[in-house]
């Protein structure tokens, strides 16, 4: 039967044939049509059979077999699956001898064509139909195709049946490396460890890739200590770690923020004769930047150069991004100069980061100079860079200049995205030009961004802030009736507009509607503060307290603005005699009862900022929680880490 006549519908098991149990993952005959012979289907053989009429046998092989093998190799490389399948059919019809290499080539061809089901089907037929017993090479090739196509669970099923249940093929280290990587991707780290531990019983010795895969999986699950133990274990077992092995641990430790331990791993690298590479340095520099240790990161760059390890684009981009986030865009520009001096050409991402940084620091002239420098050096701006410039100009209250940039962008064939349209609308709304802002909205709608949540929320927020409540309500109702689902920002903006105009009850109704919308529109502290402010201004302090109770029940903690709203109301209602300390202390106790220690600690901080001294009992509640042994140990480790890095 020709392969193309099968429909992939289910999994079924074939009976045992010649001592080899097979599994049918994908082979079920279509019930609507009987199978046709190759002659009925009009399939012409790839080679005319007359060529092989006088073929002689030499053992199990015949003259012409090598020609078929060459055809299989050629069709597999070119991806001509139809011809490939015809060759297999003709060889089967002529009872030619198949070798395992034929099938491995076919598996690779199916992999390139993203036809994993075909690879599994062919593996299933190797022994049953083609009389070629598969080895671990065939199995690894087939399962690799399935993994690359992202069919992880299917790959695990395939492995479990062929290797675990039937035990007809003995896995090798490559098999385990593939399966461990697969399990780690699926988050089955404990199962991966069990599989790793069974390797010695299968007479299979783990290699450096096996350890790296498992250590990476442990690090991603925040099980760093186990990964470190695995490093020690592999050295005891005589498997010497590579730079990649150490980099896995360093990356995990840096993501956890444990820079002191990461530095010790680097020292261990040198002791083991393993030289740190650019990935090692990039990981450490990124970790330092995340922690705000920019000066240390810059000095590490110099050390990297001294150790004859060439910084790459990732190194410079990481440093520049870290400096910009710390409000040091000028230092980032200096790194850019150093980058160019060393022969590296900055990309659009680097320029976008610097332009954004200068705008946020209130230095629009330097941002525009950076833009001009980028253009003059032949770096063609993309959507991200255009978006950064437009957003920066709008923040600088220059939406008309930003609109000119948008027009230029479109002339250059670069299409704007939702971020650009929302930035431009914000800019026009901030200058009270609602007409121009709505024109941009119409343009966004014409370009299929009308249903974008961000754009929709910007329009609602802008109309409400500019006192256009009626227009905002009309806009809301029109889009809501069309099945559009507003997000938290849109709801909060609309509630804010209603409360600011004295329609607190309508704001509460919209809030209740928001609660019914599901987890996607869960109100945040901003939404609650809007309602607290509206209710307290209306003198509905009891209603505000009830809403506060509901907020605590839903897992949302109060912030400084929440405290200020209630403190102001309490002082005004009792002629300034009530300083609000009792209210805040009660809030601390209630948060503590809900095991929300971070929220309770923040309220204590607010009290201290307001010179409201908590009672001794309140102090005791918080301190007992904060000063638990594990937390004290963590605090000490943090202190040592800070001292070490500095």
TrEMBL record:
This is Pentatricopeptide repeat-containing protein. Belongs to the PPR family. P subfamily. Gene3D superfamilies: Tetratricopeptide repeat domain. The keyword Repeat applies. InterPro entries: PPR_P_subfamily, PPR_rpt, TPR-like_helical_dom_sf. The keyword Hydrolase does not apply. PPR repeats lie at residues 172-206, 207-241, 242-276, 277-311, 312-346, 347-381, 382-416, 452-486, 487-521, 524-558. Keywords: Repeat. It comes from Artemisia annua (Sweet wormwood). PANTHER family: MITOCHONDRIAL GROUP I INTRON SPLICING FACTOR CCM1 (PTHR46128), PENTACOTRIPEPTIDE-REPEAT REGION OF PRORP DOMAIN-CONTAINING PROTEIN (PTHR46128:SF332). It comes from the Eukaryota.
């Amino acid at each position: 039967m020709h392969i193309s006549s099968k429909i992939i519908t289910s999994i079924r098991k074939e009976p045992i044939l010649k001592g080899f149990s097979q599994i049918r993952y994908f082979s079920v005959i279509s019930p609507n049509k009987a199978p046709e012979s190759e002659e009925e289907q009009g399939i012409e053989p790839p080679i005319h059979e007359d060529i092989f009429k006088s073929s002689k046998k030499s053992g199990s092989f015949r003259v012409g077999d090598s020609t078929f093998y060459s055809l299989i190799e050629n069709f597999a490389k070119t991806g001509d699956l139809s011809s490939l399948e015809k060759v297999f059919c003709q060889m089967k019809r002529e009872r030619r001898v198949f070798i395992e290499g034929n099938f491995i080539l076919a598996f690779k061809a199916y992999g390139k064509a993203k036809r994993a089901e075909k690879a599994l089907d062919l593996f299933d037929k190797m022994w049953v139909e083609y009389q070629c017993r598969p080895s671990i090479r065939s199995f690894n090739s087939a399962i690799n195709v399935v993994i690359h196509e992202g069919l992880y669970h299917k790959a695990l099923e395939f492995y479990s049946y062929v290797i675990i249940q039937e035990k007809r093929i003995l896995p090798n280290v490559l098999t385990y490396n593939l399966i461990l990587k697969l399990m780690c991707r699926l988050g089955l780290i404990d199962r991966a460890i069990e599989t790793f531990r069974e390797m010695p019983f299968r007479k299979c010795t783990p290699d450096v890739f096996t350890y790296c895969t498992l250590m990476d999986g442990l690090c991603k699950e925040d099980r760093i200590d186990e990964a470190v133990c695995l490093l020690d274990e592999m050295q005891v077992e005589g498997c010497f770690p590579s730079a990649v092995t150490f980099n896995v641990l360093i990356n995990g430790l840096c993501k956890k923020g444990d820079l002191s331990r990461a530095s010790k791993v680097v020292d261990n690298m040198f002791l083991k004769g393993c030289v740190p590479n650019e990935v090692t340095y990039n990981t450490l520099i990124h970790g330092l930047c995340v922690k705000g240790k920019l000066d240390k990161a810059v000095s590490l760059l110099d050390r990297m150069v001294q150790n004859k390890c060439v910084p790459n684009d990732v190194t410079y981009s990481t440093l520049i991004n870290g400096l910009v986030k710390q409000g040091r865009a000028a230092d980032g520009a200096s790194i850019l100069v150093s980058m160019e001096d060393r022969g590296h050409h900055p990309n659009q991402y680097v320029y976008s980061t610097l332009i954004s940084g200068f705008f946020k620091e209130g230095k629009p002239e330097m941002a525009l100079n950076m833009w001009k420098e980028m253009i003059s050096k032949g770096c063609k701006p993309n959507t991200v860079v255009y978006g950064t410039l437009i957003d920066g100009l709008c923040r600088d209250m220059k939406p008309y200049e930003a609109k000119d940039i948008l027009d230029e962008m479109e002339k250059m064939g670069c299409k704007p995205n939702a971020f650009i349209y929302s930035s431009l609308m914000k800019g026009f709304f901030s200058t009270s030009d609602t007409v121009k802002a709505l024109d941009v909205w119409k343009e966004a709608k014409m370009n299929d961004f009308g249903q974008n949540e961000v754009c929709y929320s910007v329009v609602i927020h802008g109309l409400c802030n500019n006192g256009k409540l009626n227009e905002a309500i009309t806009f809301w109702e029109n889009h809501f009736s069309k099945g559009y689902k507003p997000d938290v920002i849109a709801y909060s903006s609309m509630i804010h507009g209603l409360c600011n105009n004295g329609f607190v009850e309508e704001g509460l109704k919209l809030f209740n509607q928001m609660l019914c919308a599901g987890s996607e529109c869960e109100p945040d502290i901003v939404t609650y503060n809007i309602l607290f402010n509206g209710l307290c201004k209306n003198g509905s302090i009891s209603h505000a307290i009830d809403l506060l109770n509901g907020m605590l029940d839903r897992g949302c903690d109060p912030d400084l603005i929440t405290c200020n709203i209630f403190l102001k109301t309490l002082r005004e209602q009792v002629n300034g005699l009530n300083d609000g300390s009792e209210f805040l202390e009660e809030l601390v106790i209630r948060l503590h009862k809900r095991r929300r220690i971070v929220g309770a600690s923040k309220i204590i901080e607010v009290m201290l900022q307001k010179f409201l001294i908590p009672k001794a009992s309140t102090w005791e509640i918080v301190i007992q929680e904060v000063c638990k042994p594990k937390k004290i140990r963590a605090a000490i480790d943090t202190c040592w880490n800070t001292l070490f890095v500095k």
